[in-house]
Amino acid sequence: MKALINKVLSLNYCRFADNLLITGCFVFALGVATSKTVFTVGMVMVFVSWLIYFISDRSYRKLPARRYWPFLLLLLVIMISRNDFWYILESHVGTKLPMGMLFFLVLWKELPKHKKYLKLLLASVILSLIACAAVGYHQYFNDGIRRADGLVRFSLTYGNVMGMGVGLVLPFLFWRNIPYWQRISAGALSIFFAGGVLISLSRGAILALVGTLGALMCYRSWKLLPVFLVLCLLVFYTLPQNYQDRIMSTVDIEGYHQARIGLWKASVNMFLDHPIRGVGMDRFQEYLEADYMNEYLRSSFLHPHNNFFHMAAEFGIFGFVLFVYILYILLVRLYGRFNNFHPGKDNFYRAAITGVMGAVFFFILHGLTHNNILDYVPVHFFWFLVALGLTLEPLGTPKGNEAV
């Protein structure tokens, strides 16, 4: 018995956890746009590996590094936003943001050990997006479904995921010294995914796509902006009339925006009445129906269709400020990673980091008209891409030049 105990104690649990984590990452990447069940299994594998690290690696029991503090503080704010703390463990809506952040924090700490797999992970994500987009096209053209939803089963989610895919692959088209087959593939996939955004008929996703494409063009060169605007007009006028009407309805204050204006007004009032803790996780609809219905609203809504108003209303000033600060530091860190790469030698990695920033920017823009932090697929896709972006680096990078 003693020999058996000694043998168990001598096992290399961290090595097992390493293998479990990278396997979970591949399962997640292949399932992120194809199957909630598959990518949830991948997340569970990552969390189990973290639990093994925590038990067997004493470094996990030390005070977390300073870079993790804003995320942990936001998790704390979310936890104490309600008096019935145990509700958080039962919620199927509000827990998507905190679970996504925890998933990101584990990957941010452990993925640098596996940098030789990061290109393959990125390729796996793109394969998942291709499969999702293809199903959406089949639904639209073969099945006659008016608003395609691909494999994610919701048109807004489909538009969000496809738009993030455009932001991810488009930068490879414009970087020099990248193999032509990669650039041609990037251009074709950008068009393929952009078409997915259009057939989702998600107005918020279409607007976010235009904003993301414009930002990427300006980021590459301001001289491309006039060309981009002309292309936008040409594409608009070549679309079928129903698409033109759908896009033009985004400036209809009495139609598309009326309910959102009412929701945003209610969110501001909730924040002003509950500035410290907010109304609490998942309580937006409850408070809206009780005290905050207004002349713009004809029915109740689960959330305010805006990530920032949502954070302010449900989690107060601390939740809102921490959320904005986290988005800011993520973009700053990604840009810092971009600047760490040699302009001529590491063009693939510069394009990849720019692609991650493009996907992040799309997610943020789409979050102005849709609560995608409460959407299971996009929010976890967002955190996974950020973790990849913060760990991408060429093999053989000196120790001192590792992830910012």
Sum up the structure in keywords.
404 residues, mainly alpha, disordered C terminus
Notes on the protein architecture:
The chain is mainly α and 404 residues long. It has one domain (66-254, 302-401). It is built from 18 helices and no strands. The chain has helices spanning 2-10, 13-31, 36-56, 69-79, 87-90, 96-110, 118-141, 155-169, 171-174, 180-200, 203-220, 224-238, 241-248, 256-273, 284-292, 307-340, 347-366, 376-391. α2 packs antiparallel against α3 and α8 runs antiparallel to α17 (347-366). The longest helix has 34 residues, at 307-340. The radius of gyration is 22 Å and the shape is globular. The N and C termini lie far apart (47 Å). Mean pLDDT is 88; it is low at 4-10 and 398-404.
Assign an overall shape: globular
Largest sheet: none
Number of helices: 18
Low-confidence stretches: 4-10, 398-404
Helix-strand pattern, N to C? HHHHHHHHHHHHHHHHHH
Helical content (DSSP H or I, runs of 4+): 55-70%
Q: Whole-Å distance between the termini?
A: 47 Å
Rg over CA atoms, rounded to whole Å, is 22 Å
Find the structural class using helix and strand composition. Answer: mainly alpha
Q: How many distinct domains?
A: 1
Please state roughly what percent of the residues sit in beta strands, choosing from under 5%, 5-15%, 15-25%, 25-35%, 35-45% or over 45%: under 5%
